[in-house]
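Notes continue from the previous slide.

Worked example: a multi-chain complex. Inputs as given:
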Amino acid sequence: MANYRGMWEQLGMDLESHDQLCAVLPTAFGDVYLSQENRPEAMSFWDMVVADIHGIRPAELIEEQKKGRKVFGTFCVYVPDEVVIAADGIVTGLCGGSQFWVPGGEQVLPKSTCPLIKASVGARLGRTCPFFRIADMYVGETTCDGKKKAWEILGKDVPMYIMDMPQMKREKDIEKWYEEIKDFAGVVEKFTGNAITPEKLKEAIHIVNEKRRALARVYEARKADCIPISGKDALLMMQIAFFDDPVRCTQMADKLADELEQRVKDGVSVFPEGTKRILVTGTPMAIPNWKLHHIIETSGAAVVCEETCTGTRYFENYVDEAGQTLDEQYRAIAERYMGINCACFTPNTGRVDDILRLAKEYHVDGVIDVNLKFCCLYDTEGYTVEKALKDAGIPVLGIETDYTDADAEQLRTRIEAFVEMLG
Amino acid sequence: MYYVGIDIGSTCAKTAVFNGDREMVLSFVQPTGWSSVDTAEEIRKKLLEEGVPAEESVFVATGYGRVSVPYADKMITEITCHARGAVHLFDADTMTVIDIGGQDTKIIAIENRMVSDFVMNDKCSAGTGRFLEVMANTMALRPDELCELARTGGGTYISSMCTVFAESEVTSLIGRGEKKENIAYAVVDSIAGKVASQCSRLSLDRGIVCLTGGLCECGYLREMLGEKLHCEVRTSPESRYAGAIGAALAAFSVKKKRADTGGI
């Protein structure tokens, strides 16, 4: 890690505080990840990334910036990577997943803001995350009230562009989203100095579709009766997919999928036979938030699928690659992204359909529906989700939690009891 | 062979012992104190004195201190154990169990003698035994005294659901010269209201409703809860042992770990 100190210093980071963060991560990762048995060999790539999470990728991004490329930091799966890539820009996810950043966020935000927003703002203002320092422009969106207001605060510290999200999915809303994407493309072109052509956009669409296909392959293997990969490991792959170069992400996910498919053929499982299969639904789990998965997988159950932004919402559905003109392509992008079912939309019946479908496809024994504390949207939608699952005869446990460990033992009691209830 | 359930809660540790004929032969309760590990050791000694030696017993531990019973052959959560114990005590296939413990309150729906759903309070201690304890302390009463006193009071309410804020509300009621029984009424009303609102997440229209856990001995709380839920809330003298009884019954299907060879 010491090699990167100069880089962090140049990024204007608070090295003293950052050292504290770096000091706890290896222990946490060791306890949660390296303690697992029989992990897929391909996971060594992601282990390496985590070991130098603030080193390797930030150094790559800085090298690209030196060549004149721009880095766009995003916070949501609705912001289309394709547009940035087509203009030779780079996308990096910026969501904060650690309690470490929450107090910093609480200096400027109400305590009753969700931990993801508080951590993201805290990571920027506290100058303890290189990704937040490197990004040349932040791209926000109007998915929830907390974010909308947080952008105003972040916007004072860093160039910020905001995409206006529709709140419904009528024809005119999709049309509006198409217009938003076109506007965003104009901003990206201006900021990078590169024109987006149909050829470049076609290539970018293909790159991101390939990434989705590779991630989906890993998930496909998790549908098997034997469980070839832990939920924690799959989650780690998803979390890092937001930061990594998309082509390398595809290669690594494909390599992991190869191994998992072989494991399925050989009947290799990382859990004992009869381990209860859990679908996790709800709010995203930004790195290094492994809390819920860890509790579930040390309470006699396995997570086999995540219906979250760090799960199926990130990769399901492809952008139609047939478009020949920019106009057709932007429309195809708008349609694909409006197919994501987030609780910020009303009505949002598509999400319930997704959850019921995933519960079947992944042969789950039960569903754990989780929302980050103070996420009013997912908390409220939890009622509808839980009712639909109960009506379908699928056991469900609703959980609300944050990034602290204070409720870990209470959650463990609830989750163990839920697993006992599954029989 | 004996089948022993040990329920180490936040306030009290309950032990229930069954013989091979599924009869409860012994039960006792003690304060959990500072150390669950020490409590578990005391229980082991006490069992030995009562003629229930460890080597002739299968142990199932439950409650939040379940991890602190080193000689347990199995750990099961208190939700499963309370359900099992309540099914045994009330001999019902379909029922709702309200367990008000020291630090948490659980509502458990049971169908065909199995847990079908449950809700549990979050970190907040409103509507738990701790809430009652804190308020009783402020009023220089024992929790059971407070409950009985409440019966004669009325007309006063606590607006706050937070234990800390409610305590200061009680203090200001005392300062205002409010009658003690009216404040007691407000406290019991607050607990019953909080628990009833938790119950609203599960439907109670199937089978009987019964109260287990430490507060089942507060008769007036049970009555008030019944009023708020519009149904009879049943209990039994052994209800506070429901978790330990459930654990002991679970022990019948647990394989004893390798017998102790090293002594204590």
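Summary box: Residues 5-421 of chain A form one domain. Chain A has a mean pLDDT of 97.
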